């Protein structure tokens, strides 16, 4: 219904009127404002933009027309939503109400859920009317603050809650660290400043710094008055800085009689690395590095740790994979004008100077003479066509030129005929002019044919 009002009624408020004689426009607008023409324009606009609404208007066309001519025409603020959806087809409820009987939402229809939540089924014939509270609020009417939030303001109609400071544990009663009821782990409650951040080593503290710890955090141990870090192999707490007192070992370490020891993943039955990599162990971990390009699998870096040699390489006397020089092998690059060039693990056949590879053979490159011969060939079909086109254009131009000359000559004979008539008489002048023109025309025609 909002679309009907905003897109339709408002957009056609002064349709086809836009200034000039204001009094005349107002008279005309009065007849247009509540006309059937305007109603059709509104429905057309809705049909273009909102198919669902357009379908509903079409289904209840008679009710829409009744509202337009009997309600809106009498009172411009007549509510279409109230008339159509609530009072007649009964698919909606007024705001702040819900259900088949349009009952009031929790907290009342004016400010349901105290404006701190959403009423289930608000404005519809469905729902329960119960409140779904916004973040930070709870209660049947969403008028109470959740734990971790405090009341900024509260009265009979309104409640405002804000989040406690990050250092607070178990709630707060005012803004900032001073308002905390208790401090979270890693923070210490002080009289002047409220919760103060402890050193990372402290679970609880009296002030900043590892020497001010009351209790140590996980992975730290108390050495006199200072909390120190456990060994890197420890997953939880310890009693000193050695791996022997770790309560539990991290991944990559294994628990033995002497404490947490590094687990060598590289010695496991199945290597954690891919077939073209080798494993390098480290404290509590490992990494994979790529084998040498000569190796088909390896146990370490270099060509002397290959499991096998790749094609193009062979095992030498030092048990290292070395390149095979295929160019020393008979029959390699044996084609005419070919030269063998060796490369690591492979080779290629190059053509001699002045030749290039074509269809697997070295063929002689084209010389300048060959290029000149190809350039002296008769013009292609496309260039021949261009030549014919140019010739045709020239012929047309000559034709136009001849026509203009003929017209000019005819005009000249007419002028000469007028002059002769004054001196030798009309009949004689006409006869002479005719035969002269006929002779000229015949000669001119023969010339144009030759061209």
UniProtKB/TrEMBL annotation:
<dbReference type="Pfam" id="PF07645">
    <property type="entry name" value="EGF_CA"/>
</dbReference>
<dbReference type="InterPro" id="IPR049883">
    <property type="entry name" value="NOTCH1_EGF-like"/>
</dbReference>
<feature type="region of interest" description="Disordered">
    <location>
        <begin position="369"/>
        <end position="392"/>
    </location>
</feature>
<keyword id="KW-0472">Membrane</keyword>
<keyword id="KW-0677">Repeat</keyword>
<feature type="domain" description="EGF-like">
    <location>
        <begin position="323"/>
        <end position="361"/>
    </location>
</feature>
<dbReference type="InterPro" id="IPR009030">
    <property type="entry name" value="Growth_fac_rcpt_cys_sf"/>
</dbReference>
<feature type="disulfide bond">
    <location>
        <begin position="133"/>
        <end position="142"/>
    </location>
</feature>
<dbReference type="InterPro" id="IPR002049">
    <property type="entry name" value="LE_dom"/>
</dbReference>
<dbReference type="GO" id="GO:0005509">
    <property type="term" value="F:calcium ion binding"/>
</dbReference>
<protein>
    <recommendedName>
        <fullName>Cysteine-rich with EGF-like domain protein 2</fullName>
    </recommendedName>
</protein>
<feature type="transmembrane region" description="Helical">
    <location>
        <begin position="402"/>
        <end position="420"/>
    </location>
</feature>
<keyword id="KW-0732">Signal</keyword>
<comment type="similarity">
    <text>Belongs to the CRELD family.</text>
</comment>
<dbReference type="InterPro" id="IPR000742">
    <property type="entry name" value="EGF"/>
</dbReference>
<feature type="transmembrane region" description="Helical">
    <location>
        <begin position="426"/>
        <end position="442"/>
    </location>
</feature>
<feature type="domain" description="Phorbol-ester/DAG-type">
    <location>
        <begin position="210"/>
        <end position="246"/>
    </location>
</feature>
<dbReference type="InterPro" id="IPR006212">
    <property type="entry name" value="Furin_repeat"/>
</dbReference>
<keyword id="KW-0812">Transmembrane</keyword>
<dbReference type="InterPro" id="IPR002219">
    <property type="entry name" value="PKC_DAG/PE"/>
</dbReference>
<keyword id="KW-0245">EGF-like domain</keyword>
<dbReference type="InterPro" id="IPR001881">
    <property type="entry name" value="EGF-like_Ca-bd_dom"/>
</dbReference>
<dbReference type="InterPro" id="IPR000152">
    <property type="entry name" value="EGF-type_Asp/Asn_hydroxyl_site"/>
</dbReference>
<keyword id="KW-1133">Transmembrane helix</keyword>
<feature type="domain" description="EGF-like">
    <location>
        <begin position="101"/>
        <end position="143"/>
    </location>
</feature>
<dbReference type="InterPro" id="IPR018097">
    <property type="entry name" value="EGF_Ca-bd_CS"/>
</dbReference>
<dbReference type="InterPro" id="IPR052235">
    <property type="entry name" value="Nephronectin_domain"/>
</dbReference>
<keyword id="KW-1015">Disulfide bond</keyword>
């Amino acid at each position: 219904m909002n679309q009907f009002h905003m897109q339709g009624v408002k957009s056609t408020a002064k349709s086809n009127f836009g200034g000039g004689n204001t009094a005349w426009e107002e008279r005309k607008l009065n007849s247009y404002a509540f006309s059937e023409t305007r109603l059709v324009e509104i429905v057309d606009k809705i049909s273009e933009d909102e198919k669902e609404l357009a379908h509903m208007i079409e289904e209840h066309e008679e009710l829409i027309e009744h509202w337009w001519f009997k309600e809106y025409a009498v009172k411009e603020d007549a509510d279409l939503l109230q008339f159509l959806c609530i009072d007649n087809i009964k698919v909606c409820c007024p705001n702040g109400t819900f259900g088949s009987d349009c009952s009031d939402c929790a907290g009342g229809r004016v400010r349901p859920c105290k404006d701190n939540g959403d009423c289930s089924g608000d404005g519809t014939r469905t729902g329960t009317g119960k409140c779904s509270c916004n973040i930070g609020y709870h209660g049947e009417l969403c008028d109470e603050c959740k734990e971790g939030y405090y009341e900024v303001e509260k009265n009979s109609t309104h409640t405002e809650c804000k989040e406690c400071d990050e250092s607070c544990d178990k709630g707060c009663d005012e803004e900032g660290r001073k308002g905390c009821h208790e401090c979270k782990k890693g923070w210490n409650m002080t009289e002047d400043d409220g919760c103060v951040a402890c050193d990372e080593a402290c679970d609880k503290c009296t002030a900043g710094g590892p020497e001010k710890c009351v209790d140590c955090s996980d992975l730290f141990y108390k050495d006199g008055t200072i909390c120190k870090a456990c060994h890197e192999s420890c997953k939880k707490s310890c009693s000193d800085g050695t791996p022997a007192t770790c309560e539990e070992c991290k991944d990559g370490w294994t628990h033995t009689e002497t404490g947490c020891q590094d687990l060598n993943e590289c010695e496991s039955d199945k290597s954690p690395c891919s077939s073209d990599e080798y494993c390098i162990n480290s404290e509590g971990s490992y990494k994979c590095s790529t084998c040498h390009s000569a190796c088909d699998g390896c146990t370490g870096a270099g060509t002397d740790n290959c499991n096998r040699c790749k094609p193009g390489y062979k095992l030498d006397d030092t048990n290292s994979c070395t390149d095979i020089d295929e160019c020393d092998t008979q029959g390699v690059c044996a084609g005419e004008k070919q030269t063998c060039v060796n490369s690591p693990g492979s080779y290629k056949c190059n053509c001699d100077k002045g030749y290039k590879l074509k269809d697997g053979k070295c063929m002689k490159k084209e010389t300048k003479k060959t290029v000149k011969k190809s350039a002296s060939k008769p013009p292609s079909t496309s260039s021949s066509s261009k030549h014919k086109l140019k010739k045709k254009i020239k012929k047309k131009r000559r034709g136009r030129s001849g026509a203009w000359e003929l017209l000019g000559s005819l005009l000249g004979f007419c002028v000469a005929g007028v002059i002769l008539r004054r001196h030798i008489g009309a009949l004689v002048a006409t006869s002479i002019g005719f035969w002269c023109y006929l002779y000229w025309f015949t000669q001119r025609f023969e010339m144009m044919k030759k061209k």
